[in-house]
Structure formats: C-alpha cells, structure tokens
Amino acid sequence: MSLAIVHSRAQDGVSAPPVTVEVHLSGGLPGTNIVGLPETAVKEARDRVRVAIQNAQLEYPSRRVTVSLAPADLPKDGGRFDLPIALGILAAQGHLPKESLARYEFLGELALSGELRPVTGVLPAALKAAKVGRALIVPRDNSAEAALVSGATAHGATSLLEVCAFLRGTAELPVAVGFDPVDTGTANGLDRIELDRIELDLADVRGQPHARRALEIAATGNHHALFVGPPGTGKTMLASRLPGILPPLTEAEALEAAAIRSVAGCGIDFHKWKMRPFRAPHHTASAVALVGGGPVPRPGEISLAHRGVLFLDELPEYDRRVLEVLREPLESGHIVISRAARQAEFPAAFQLVAAMNPCPCGYAGDPSGRCACTPEQVRRYRTRVSGPLLDRIDLQIAVPRVPLAELGDAMPAGESSAIVRARVVAARERQLQRAGKANARLSNREVLRDCALAKSDRSLLERALDKLGLSARAYHRVLRVARTIADLDGSERVATAHLTEAIQYRRLLGGI
C-alpha cells in the first residue's frame, strides 16, 4: 500500500498540537497536492520538497502525490512540515521503513540542496513529544533548544540524507545534549548566571533608601511599581536591578519563558535561559508590538516578559491607547489575540515597573525651583496615564534628586543584590507555603483570609482610602502589599506598621 504516516507538530500560540502527515501515491498525472488548511508557506513545500529530494540523489515519484495534514481544521504555517512531508513521500515509495517512522516526530525546513534549516517553536514541540514518549528529530541548529526539556530525546540532523540513513539503521544521529552554563568563562566559583546578576548590582544605587525598600517589597510580593521623579535620579537604574533580586525561576517557569522566545523566533540565550527576562520597549512601540498580534498571531513584549519584568520608561510618552491594552493582562496574566481566522492565547504573567517624570520639564517639586510648568500643563501631562491603569499599580514611589554628597566614593554603598535577594527568597517562600503563590496573585477571598486586620486597623484603612479617593480594587491591593511587608518582617499577621507603610505607597495615586 502506497500510504505512509509521519508524526509532526504545528504551532498554535505557545502550544504544539499534533499533526499527522499522511502521504498517498496514486495513478494519474504526476503532481503534488497538499490539503489540510495549509498557509502559503506550507503550500510552497511541494516545490522545496521535490527539488530537495532530487538534489539528495533520491527518487521523487512520477505519480499523483496527495499530502494530508490532519486535523484538517487546524491552520498550518511555516516550513516546519518540509521534513515530514519528504520522509512520507520516500516511505510511501518503499525507500524508508514505515515502522521506524512511528517512533519519532519530525520538524524541519528543507533547503533546495536537501540541507535542514532551523524552525521556530521547537521547544513546545519537544515538551509535547516527551509527554507522548516519542523522540524528536530536528535540524541541528534546533537541537540544543530541544534538549532543554528534561526527559526528552532529541536528535539533530543537518540534511535529509542524514535522517534517511538514520531511519534505515545505517547511520547514527547524535542525541542532543543540554547546555551547561558553567564553563571556562566563570570566575571565583560563580557560574555565568550569577556573574550576570552581579553586573547589575543594587549596591550601585547610591542613596534612595525609600525606593530601594519599595523595590524589595515589589520583588517579594511580585507587585507592580511606578517610580516618579526628576531626570537622573536613578529610576531606570533601580528598575534594571529588579531581576537580580527576584527569586530564581523554577525549571518549569524557565521553560515557559523560553518556549515563548522559541515561538517568537527571538532565539534562546543558553547562558541566560534560566534568568528572569527583562524587557524595556521604547515608548514609540505600537499596541501590537506590546501585546502581540499580526495575521498569524505572534507574542508581544508582555509575553516575552513572562515570568520576568516589563519596564516602561517615560510612561506618559506612550500612546494612551497602547497603555490601555495592558489593563486585562495585568489582572489575568495572559492575553488572547483574536483575528478573523485565528485565535491564540499567550501567557503574560509579567511584573510591570514603570518610570515617569512629575511634569513635562521633569522638575516639578524639585527643591531647586527649576520647574516652569503651569498647573494645567502638569495636569495634562499626568492624565496621559489613565486612572484605571494606575489603580492596578501597587507601589507608587517618589524618587527625589540625590544630594551630590551621597554620590561620592566616601559614602558607604548600600546592600548588594545578593543580600537583598536572600531576604526576598525567604519571604517568598513563606508566601508559597501559605498560599502556593506570590501575594500579588492572591484572590480577593484569599486576601480576606490571609490579610485579616484588627478592627482599629480596618478603620484606619477605610479612612485612608476614603481620603485618597481610591477604589475597591485598591483596597485589596493595599492589603496584599501589607501582607508582603509582614512576610519580609517574618510576621504571621498584618500589623499596624505594615498597613501604614502599604498605604503610603498609594499616596501618589490621588495626585496623578
């Protein structure tokens, strides 16, 4: 029977649904037809595959070739099906043993010479293949990415001929080996990940004890933060130090973040793949660039920052419509992109850190009196950022100008990132033991359970929120921050001191 079946995987968001490539040879005029909702790049595979097989000195059938990509209602795009289609055609002719195909899944684009070119989305495919117990055969340039998955077996090949020889049992394909970040480039017993953390050390930040404290709270509870202050006061420096004090990623979280980069085609830095991502898009970024989109939905900056930090500098300079698309992902931790023919969901559990000046010239409230902005100019500038978006930001911190005397070498440096990170990790562990998640992710019901207040403290919170004109959402967010401060103190309950500190991080909201 001139029918062959080959296993492959499509790309749908960050998932990799299975695709069965069925190849049938029949009589009639020679030609190749691909069915199963193929996009243009998949339809063009018939020409790439035909020439690649011929240039590999193999036989292309002079018969009617029908290629079915099942399921038929799942859109297929890209060149990832070139290799399985070619193998199916060869197996249908009897040039390859069909039983050997059943043990593997195949991905890869074919050059006209028969060489294999890398494709996107290999990491999600490796995760799924490992779950069903099949090995994965991919282009050699994708093999290190596939090997990141514990328990997965992946082989890297450079050409169609290599894969054919392996399936016939006449040659071996090397098993992909996971990347080891510890190499000869390390020093003092530290691996490269730790060295990269040290390069952006919190000890470099001089002064700003209030902002440093807020940054530690943000890292501990995974809270969103906004720094407000004149130019050159260290807002960007503080934000860039946040990844270095966050708890380390678990392997599952690191694979989630790496899978998004794989799907986006950004490439994976194997030295840093277990570090939390830090994304800082320019303020001219469009809404599609920020949240994702396109005819074939692709992840945006908020998804590339998944499990890490999204830094928006000069927040009021972003188009207001661009900022408004952040509202839902900030709450839900994911984004659904819908198009006429496609829908894709991408994870977006990022931690937002933003920075802005207090006015157009940047010096409102500065002791020097340099600000010449009118109250109306200041109001228009600050209202570029909507109240609903600001309501979702837990910590709003003033970052004043640092006296020059504190910038000299004679002044002692602040605590290093390693010291702060140790406190953050210990406090985060308390949260995980209590609720299984960071405090910022607590539901309203969990907030009432874990952040119970004394009657006097509840009255204090109600008076403060009424005076500041804050919403019911802010009520629960203040309680989450207070719970985080209590965790840093090692306290089992939220005390008055924890609550008052949490309230003062919302004072800027009423005036912006």
Question: How would you describe this protein?
Answer:
The model is unreliable at 181-193 (pLDDT under 50). The protein has helices spanning 40-43, 45-55, 82-92, 98-101, 122-132, 143-146, 160-168, 192-199, 209-221, 235-245, 251-264, 287-291, 301-304, 320-324, 327-332, 375-382, 387-390, 417-435, 444-450, 455-468, 472-489, 496-504; strands at residues 3-9, 18-26, 31-35, 64-70, 104-106, 109-110, 116-117, 135-139, 154-157, 225-228, 278-279, 292-293, 298-299, 309-312, 334-338, 343-347, 351-356, 395-398. The longest helix has 19 residues, at 417-435. The strands form 6 sheets. The protein has a 5-stranded parallel beta sheet with strand order 11-14-17-10-18. α9 packs across α21. It is an alpha/beta fold and 512 residues long.
Question: What topology does this entry show?
Answer:
Elements: E1 3-9, E2 18-26, E3 31-35, H1 40-43, H2 45-55, E4 64-70, H3 82-92, H4 98-101, E5 104-106, E6 109-110, E7 116-117, H5 122-132, E8 135-139, H6 143-146, E9 154-157, H7 160-168, H8 192-199, H9 209-221, E10 225-228, H10 235-245, H11 251-264, E11 278-279, H12 287-291, E12 292-293, E13 298-299, H13 301-304, E14 309-312, H14 320-324, H15 327-332, E15 334-338, E16 343-347, E17 351-356, H16 375-382, H17 387-390, E18 395-398, H18 417-435, H19 444-450, H20 455-468, H21 472-489, H22 496-504
Parallel strand pairs: 3-4, 5-8, 8-9, 10-17, 10-18, 11-14, 14-17
Antiparallel strand pairs: 1-2, 2-4, 6-7, 12-13, 15-16
